[in-house]
Amino acid sequence: xxxxxxxxxxxxxxxxxxxxxxxxxxxxxxxxxxxxxxxxxxxxxxxxxxxxxxxxxxxxxxxxxxxxxxxxxxxxxxxxxxxxxxxxxxxxxxxxxxxxxxxxxxxxxxxxxxxxxxxxxxxxxxxxxxxxxxxxxxxxxxxxxxxxxxxxxxxxxxxxxxxxxxxxxxxxxxxxxxxxxxxxxxxxxxxxxxxxxxxxxxxxxxxxxxxxxxxxxxxxxxxxxxxxxxxxxxxxxxxxxxxxxxxxxxxxxxxxxxxxxxxxxxxxxxxxxxxxxxxxxxxxxxxxxxxxxxxxxxxxxxxxxxxxxxxxxxxxxxxxxxxxxxxxxxxxxxxxxxxxxxxxxxxxxxxxxxxxxxxxxxxxxxxxxxxxxxxxxxxxxxxxxxxxxxxxxxxxxxxxxxxxxxxxxxxxxxxxxxxxxxxxxxxxxxxxxxxxxxxxxxxxxxxxxxxxxxxxxxxxxxxxxxxxxxxxxxxxxxxxxxxxxxxxxxxxxxxxxxxxxxxxxxxxxxxxxxxxxxxxxxxxxxxxxxxxxxxxxxxxxxxxxxxxxxxxxxxxxxxxxxxxxxxxxxxxxxxxxxxxxxxxxxxxxxxxxxxxxxxxxxxxxxxxxxxxxxxxxxxxxxxxxxxxxxxxxxxxxxxxxxxxxxxxxxxxxxxxxxxxxxxxxxxxxxxxxxxxxxxxxxxx
Length: 684
Fold this sequence. Notes:
By secondary structure, the protein is of the alpha+beta class. Helix 2 packs across helix 3 (72-90).
């Protein structure tokens, strides 16, 4: 029996949308930690089934198809194949990776809906929604664009403004129009089926808030927040022509909403792979269900999907949902639409046979408790300073010395001294720590602790210095190298879930054949005396600056393209209300030289300027901190409003306003003069 009396573990990963490739944010948030956990369970000898698949329905896919002038099926066929092949090459060891456009998924999702509908678990409601008379269809929120009521962005979607990040309803938009035809919209009545989540609120509150306090704080907190706000009915159908037709009378032209259909993909993919035994994995109380997801999927996997399963009545519920936060790239949010990402298939092309380097770096930077940042500088540093200098260096030294002094055969132990036994004892301690951390889904800390075994090996060799003892005491050298080789063999097992490609390579060098159980980690006899090992080859290679610079140059080019596109797309802000010339004459605009500039403490946006205004010094507070480094502004000449009434900001009196220009991408540029002029000069 495995943890808490379960006989088997079913692990699922969030289904990636088949409208684009997989990027490092997906990998760090979901797929790498899930794969590490599954490989660990397999090494423990536990019965585990690992389910993945592509999410192939929903509006983003239809929008992409419309833009490219192809069918949604063309889009999902292309990206499903790319995603699946990328996962396989990267070593994500799914037992099944299927898709939600399969026949068996359509049957499974339809049957699930039909059963709930027949049992009266849905409510039917007629509502008014936007309708495009030109194309003759109701529009999903993403097909509706208009002006954001929050920031004035004229290209906000019906569900979100991507400029200011506000969540919206389509009815919030000003001057809404169709993204398909560009036509104004009308409101028409339409009927949909809803899951009344409020009916399960008390059950969910007890099941989550009382029964699963061990869940990660970000998961537990988000669930509590939703429950405290009160759960509302949620539509399970949509007016759309791409998806699974709703199997109900009067539902012509409607499909199952993607959030309802997609998680059922876990079930249908299991059915596809295990047609005879799938129910054991989904309906047996001795099966433990684990969902690996990103934070944007917490509500669906912890509230909505469990409510669906509970309503159906026959299925097990998730025991844990280890959700990660988001991974950023070089300080900016990863964005598919802006091509701001490191794409998995491109990484595999640019860095052949270096899957483990990316796995290691993403795990070391895993956003388990907060958003984290991937940088190419950190990627290079962790490769060179940890994988090469710590793990690779120890393995290479142990194997090279064995070939140098013992022709590549494991030497005998002549006798153990205190430091030898202490070193051997530490192996099992490290293994137990890694095991505990993995059991509790602390994947990042588990990898860090596992690397301590390589550090232990390096310290042992550095302390014992067998290369010096070789001149006088070869028996002692033999003991030291035997222990170093046993550490190497243990490393090949302990690091297997984290670095599967490199550890397979290491086991080949050690000629360590067959499957060795996790519980064997800590043994001091994994390699027998006299056992022949192969000539060592480098496990990891140093990453040179030019390789990293090429990736940074690529990102810089993408940033430039995005900035140019934003400028082209941006429209000038509307001209303000007309004023009398006399009002303009009241403004006293002057030139000043920046003498000092510092960030205002405890703020992200504000800079404090000390200006030479020609009459003396004055202080102005300005919201330019995200656009300029303060030291780069010293010595510049700026234009400011000199006769603006003073105003206190963060306890500092601001004596005027510095003028700047807002560009199409939202960046600010201070107004200055074309040549140096005397401070205090009047602008006219």
